[in-house]
Amino acid sequence: MVPHLVTALTGPINELEQRILDGMPAIERWFRLEWMEHTPPFYTAVDVRNAGFKLAPVDANFFPGGWNYLTTEMLPLAVQAAQAAIEKICPEARNLLVIPENRGRNTSYMANVAQLVRIFQMAGLNVRVGSIDPAVKSPKKVDLPDGSTVCLEPVVRTKRRLGLKNFDPCTILLNTDLAAGTPGILEDLHEQYLLPPLHAGWSVRRKSNHLHSYEEVSKRFGKLLGIDPWLIQSIYARAEGVDLARGKGVEGLTAAVDQVLTKVRRKYKEYGINEKPFVIVKSENGASSLPISTIRDVKELEALTKKPRQKAMAGATTDDAGPTDVIVQEGVLTRERVHDGMAEPVVYMMDRYVVGGFYRVHPDRGADESLALPGASFVPLAFSQSGHLPQPGAKPGASAPNRFYMYGVIGRLAMVAASYELEATNPEAEVYE
Amino acid sequence: MVPHLVTALTGPINELEQRILDGMPAIERWFRLEWMEHTPPFYTAVDVRNAGFKLAPVDANFFPGGWNYLTTEMLPLAVQAAQAAIEKICPEARNLLVIPENRGRNTSYMANVAQLVRIFQMAGLNVRVGSIDPAVKSPKKVDLPDGSTVCLEPVVRTKRRLGLKNFDPCTILLNTDLAAGTPGILEDLHEQYLLPPLHAGWSVRRKSNHLHSYEEVSKRFGKLLGIDPWLIQSIYARAEGVDLARGKGVEGLTAAVDQVLTKVRRKYKEYGINEKPFVIVKSENGASSLPISTIRDVKELEALTKKPRQKAMAGATTDDAGPTDVIVQEGVLTRERVHDGMAEPVVYMMDRYVVGGFYRVHPDRGADESLALPGASFVPLAFSQSGHLPQPGAKPGASAPNRFYMYGVIGRLAMVAASYELEATNPEAEVYE
C-alpha cells in the first residue's frame, strides 16, 4: 500500500512499541479522559522523530498546510472528524470562511487550501476562501495542477464581523500561522468563531510554553505506561536575549547548550546509546530570523556567531531580529529513510482524531538535522487504510500498522500538550461574563 | 475500486440525486440539528431499495450483524465513529461485553462478532464476548476461516450486574435482536450501560412505530429539499389480529392491501410510472412466523391463506403464531443488479456516522421481492474509500460516489426515525430521578 515505507519501518524500537501496544486500551481511555477536561486544537500537525531508541515530537503546528499530501483514502476520516468538530463548536454552522496564507498563486500551497475546502464542504458547510492579502482586491481564480481551481476573494470587514461580499460566515478557519503578527482585520471578531484562536499564532506563541506542557504530559503518560518519559520527550533549556550577530546573550546560550548536552550524554550513557548527542537551537517564536541550527558541541556556537545574519526559512519575515529568546532542545535522530532521503513522519489530526500523515523527506540532510527546509518532499502515509490501527497479535516491529499507531499516540500527546498550552496562554481565560 | 458495482449504478434517478447533491450543506446541517435534539441508536443497518424513480429504506436493524461483509477500508471509519460513541456515552469505559446471538459456531455470524470485537478494541476498550446461551457452560473458542478466533464465554449474572468470570464491564453491547423475547438475565441491569436498550429488541419493537416516525421525518426532509416525500418513503397500512391459517382478520388485511395498492397506483399515474405496484406483507414484530410476502393483487391474498403455516426465516422462533398484527407496506422495486442477481444496498452506521455498506444480492429473486433470505450473498461497497462522499461537479448518475452519498442520506433518515421511535417507546421515558 505504501511500499517504499518498508525501509522506514525497520529498527529496534520494539520495547517502547510493545509497551504502547500493550497499553492500547489504557492509552485510549487516558485520551478520552483528557478530552473531557480539555479542548483539542481545531487541527494540528505534529512532526515526530524516531531515533530507534526514542520517539518524540519535535514540532506542533496549529495551522497545518500540506493537507494535499495526505492520501485520498484519508479523506473520509478527515471529513468525519471535521463533522465531529463542527458539531461540538457550532452545530448551526452554515458558512465557513477559510483564511489562507498570503502566498499568492503558489499552487502547492493552494492545493492544500483546495483540500481543506473539500473536507469542509463534504462535512456539510458552504466554504469560501477569503484572502487578507491587501493585494487581493477582486476574486482571483487559481488553477491547480489537478484541474480544480480555488477562488481567492478579498475579505470584507465590518465593525464586528469578517466575511466576503454576499457571504457572512459564522466560523472563520485560519490556515495562516500569523508569524508576521496578528493583522488588525482579525481582531475584535467577537460574534464569529475564529479558529484556531489568535493566541495560537506564531507571533504570540512561545515554544517553551509548548515544551513545558509537553513535559508535564509526557511525565503523566510515562507513569501510565511505566516508562521513562525521556523516551518520548526532548530535554530543553531556554536562553534569553540572544543576538548572535551582535554577540549578545552568547554566554547564556552556551550555558544552555552545555546543560542540555550534558543531560543527554548522561541519558545516552544510562541507556548504552552509542551516538553523538546534539541539540537544536531555535528561536522561542516562529517569527524570528534565527536559523534552526544543529549543535553537536559548545564550540560550534562560535561558528554560528560568525555567520552572517540570514533568514532561516522563506516564512521568516522579521527583518531586523534584534535580541531574541532561544530554545535549546535535545535533538532526536531520525533513523527513518524513504527513497534514500532522511525522513520524519508528520501526523495530521482534526479535532481529537488522527486522520492521516506523511513522511517529510530531505535528500541532502543528515540524521541529526532539521528536514523542514526547501528541498523537502512528501510521501503520503496511508494511515487511513489501516495505518493508525494496530493489529493485535502482530509481532512488534514487524508490521507497519503497529508503528503508525505509535506515531499517532505521540502526535496526540503533543496535541494534549497543545491544548494545555492554549489554555494557559488564553488572554481571555479570566474574563467571565 | 468496486468494479462490479458499475451495473448497479445506471438508471434514471438523476433528478432526486441532483436535489440531494445540491442540498448537501443544508442536509448535513439538518442532520447536525437533529442530533442536537435526539440520540442516534448505537449502531444501525438500513436496507435501501432504489427503484430508479424513488429510493426508500425498507428495514432498519438496531442489532446489525454482517460487519464482516464491510471492506477493511471501512475499519478506521468505524473505529473513529465508535470512539465518538464511547466518548459520548461513557468516556471512563474500560471493559465492553459483547452479547452475540445464540448461533453456536456459525462461522459467518461469528466472523461478524470478531469484526465488532476488533472495532471496539481499536477504539480502546477491553472487549470480551459473553454468551447468554444456556448451552455455553465454559469458554469455547470458535475458529474462523481467516485464522482468527472468537472466544465465547458464559455470562455471569449477579444481582445487579452482568459480566464474565473476572471481567466486569461497564457497557454491554447487544448483537442479538432478542426476537424470542427479552431474557431475564438482561433485565434490571441499572448499573451498566445496556446498548441498544431492551425496548429496541424485536419482541418489543413494532414496525408501525418506525414507519410512523419515518413518515414524519420524510415529510420534514421533503420540505427541506422541496420534494414529494413519497420519493423517499413507502406508503403503508396496518391490519390487526391476522391469522391466515385460521382465516382470521383476512378482511382487514384485504382492505389494507387494497388501500395501499390504490394509493401507490395513483402515485404511479401521477409520475407516469409504467410498473405494476405491489405491497409487502409482514408482521408488526420480528418474532412472528408470518412469512414476508409480495402481493401484487388483492386476489393473491387468497393463495397466502391456503399456504401451510411456515417459518419465514431461520431467525423466527415463535412456534405458534396465533393472530398477529400485520404491516402492509408499499413495495419498492430494486433496479440494481450485481453479478446478475437482484441487489439492494445496506448502509451501516455507527453512532451518527455512515461507516460502510454492502450490496445484498440474491440470484433467484425478482425485482419486487425481499432479498433478505437464505441464498443471499454480500458484495462489499467501499463506502470508506470515497464512497459516501459526493464529488462536487461530477455529472449526476455518472459517478458512483454521488449515488452512495444519497444512500447514506436515506440510511441516516431512517436512523433519525429510529431515534424518534426509541424515544417514543422508551418505557423509562417518564421516570425522572
Automatic annotation (TrEMBL), chains A, B:
- Membrane-spanning ranges: none
**What keywords tag this UniProt record?**
Ligase
Annotated Gene Ontology MF terms? ligase activity
Q: Which domain of life is it from?
A: Bacteria
Pfam families xrefs: GshA
Family matches, as NCBIfam families? gshA_ferroox
Q: What is this protein called?
A: Glutamate--cysteine ligase
Organism the protein comes from:
Pseudacidovorax intermedius
